[in-house]
Structures are given as C-alpha cells and as structure tokens.
Design a protein that fits this description.
- This protein is mainly alpha-helical.
- 65% of the residues lie in helices and 6% in strands.
- The chain has 4 helices and 3 strands.
- A 3-stranded antiparallel beta sheet has the order 1-3-2.
- Helix 1 packs across helix 2 and helix 3 packs across helix 4.
- The longest helix is centred in the last third of the chain and has 38 residues.
- The mean pLDDT is 87.
- GO terms for molecular function: DNA binding; DNA-binding transcription factor activity.
- Keywords: DNA-binding.
- This is MerR family transcriptional regulator.
- It comes from Flavobacterium flavipigmentatum.
C-alpha cells in the first residue's frame, strides 16, 4: 500500500483518504478518534480535511494495524514509545518499496 501525495495539495477529504486506503470512511473516522497523532482540520460543514502529515500518520497506523497485525492498544503504545524511530523505519520501507517497483519496471522493459 503506497499513497501518492499530490504536490502542492494541502488537504484531502475523508472520501479521498478512504478510497486511497481502500477502507470505509467510518474506519478513518474511528482511527481519528483513537489516535492522537491524527489532527485533521474541519471545514465549515464539520468535514474532516487531512493534511499530508495526517496521511503519513494514517499510513503508519495502517501499516501497524492492517499489515503487522497490531491491536489498537498495541499500535498506540508502539507509536508513543518510539514514534520517531517507527516513522523513520516506515519511511525507509516505503522508499525501498518504491525503488523495488522502479527496478521491476526497468527489468520488464529489458
């Protein structure tokens, strides 16, 4: 799972976020209520508008809960105890996945 952030885009609607993660908007709302690191803004109608930083944090939550099988409490604890370290590792994994995809594309062109 890799989400492409659009250059210059400051906010993403909950619908865009849910579609990008291939989950229901209700799960995104639930995670927003459970994880303090998510801080979406709300527009005049009260709709959540997620920043690129929120998207990165959602990717990290998704990785911990959906890919690594953490419980919500386990993910919260993991984030609180080593958020910077976890985020750094997560970013390295995502960059390596991008490089792997690019190398596979190059290989297929040969």
């Amino acid at each position: 799972m890799h989400i492409e952030l659009k250059e210059g885009k400051r906010y993403y609607s909950i619908g865009e976020v849910a579609k990008a993660f291939d989950v229901n908007a209700s799960l995104i709302r639930f995670w927003d209520s459970e994880f303090d690191i998510l801080k979406p803004k709300k527009n005049a109608k009260g709709n959540r508008m997620f920043t690129p930083e929120d998207i990165t944090n959602l990717q990290l939550i998704y990785h911990l809960v959906k890919e690594r099988g953490f419980t919500l409490e386990g993910a919260k604890t993991h984030l609180k105890e080593g958020q910077k370290k976890t985020l750094d590792k997560f970013e390295i994994i995502r960059k390596l996945e991008t490089i792997k995809t690019q190398l596979t594309e190059i290989k297929n062109e040969l």
